[in-house]
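Entry 14. Two folds queued back to back today. First construct below, sequence then structure tokens.
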Amino acid sequence: MRLWRALIRRAWSIRLILIAGLLSGCEAGLSLASPDAIGLPRGLFAGLSALVTAAAFAAGLIAQRME
């Protein structure tokens, strides 16, 4: 069990894979959500959606390079 904890603490590729998965999930959730339901202005919602999509793309690319 200690080996897994040490691996997760030191392995950036695992962290980036987890971040990429989390951001991809957020991207999917934002595509289903409505700005009116969340209570955000449409422009801010669109900007946040674009930011999450770009971050998911970048994290996915970095995670693939590290494997």
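Second construct, same run, same settings:
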Amino acid sequence: MSAQDPGLAAKSFSAGTALPHVSARRAWTVLGIVVASHAVVFLDKALLGLTAQPLMRELGLSKAEFGSISGASYLLFGVTCLIAGYVADRFSVRWVLLACGVMWALGQIPAIFAVSGAMLYLSRVAVGAAEGPAQPLSHVAAYSWFPNERRGLPAALITCGTSIGKFALVPLVALIIAQFGWHAAFVTVGLLALVWSGLWLVWGRLGPYGDTSTTAGGSEPAVSWWRIVLSGTFIGSFAAVFTQGALAAVIFTWLPSYFHEGLGFSITTAGTLFTVPSAMAIVSLLCVGPITDRLLRKGVPSRLARGVFGGCCLIASGLMLMLLYWVSSPVLAIVVLTLGYGLSTTVNVIANPSLAEITPVAKRARALSALVALGSLAGVTSPIFTGWLLDIADTQQRGYAEVFLVFGALVALGGLCFAVLVHPERDRRRVMG
């Protein structure tokens, strides 16, 4: 690979001037570390799902109580997103991300020694507070190395980090749980978080597309924050992220239990099947991301390449998940779930680049953090609501069918809002005044 990738020397958002001397090797190294962060974050989110059955038995938790503990990860998620986004814009994205990595590790300590639901709740609150800013700031760091029309693939790879976590790490952790108990799973994630923090400390840097000094005249124009958050692109992106976030929180918490209680698979098999939807997620992400990039480079407006196209993907995802209400075959249910959930993960490939496109560099961390913070609100209540539905259902099979009917409809509605409201070209002009 050459030291400079001609594809990276494209026009900057703010100035329309070429940025020379972009190291492709450094760009892909930073992107690789960012992808790894998402693998670790996903594994942490998946821990409660993997340990659900033994954990509930040992600590004497009901499904509603367990759902509440899962939702605790989102309690400070939004608050720390907003705070970290502001701090990162004012000071350093790099150091805020490093602090998040250290907090992932330290936050596992109460869970490692947990003998009650309260200790586990405390652990999830602490870890969630650190994981919140990691998602938007990792996109900010990656986008600083790639121009607007080449951010679809990096966004796709970052989101694929969750699937990498499933394929590479979930089976290992499931084996650790079977051999050493559920406490050992939290030890494993804590150690992985420390390793990631070391890698980011050594190689994590921002690229030239995240440097405000590269803009015309050496600085960007002053931009009203409210023009960003009240734009159709922000509101449409929020609708998509919020609804898919509600679904994702349910999947992280309840999917292994669905395979076990709803479809009748053994606990070990259910843990293995937990990785299956990620196959479609990887395919969807690596198709949708590059497709949007290619359309943009061919001159297709972002309104169509990201807004309409991305919204249609989410609508299709929601409709497929709703079909699970009428599916009784375990094999067919896995196929439908794999297709529906996998396609829903493309939200990050379309929403984050769309918002980054309309936002000046100096406010990008705050904008993406605000999007994630508001979108995460669904994750606080959706696992609890799911637990409540399962507790009152006549049968577990019926309960899970109702869950996917509700959250499938929610994702489809979010996709419709995204397709109608997102218009980066128009909103960029309004934001920049």
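Quick look at the second one. The mean pLDDT is 85. Residues 24-59 form the longest helix (36 residues).
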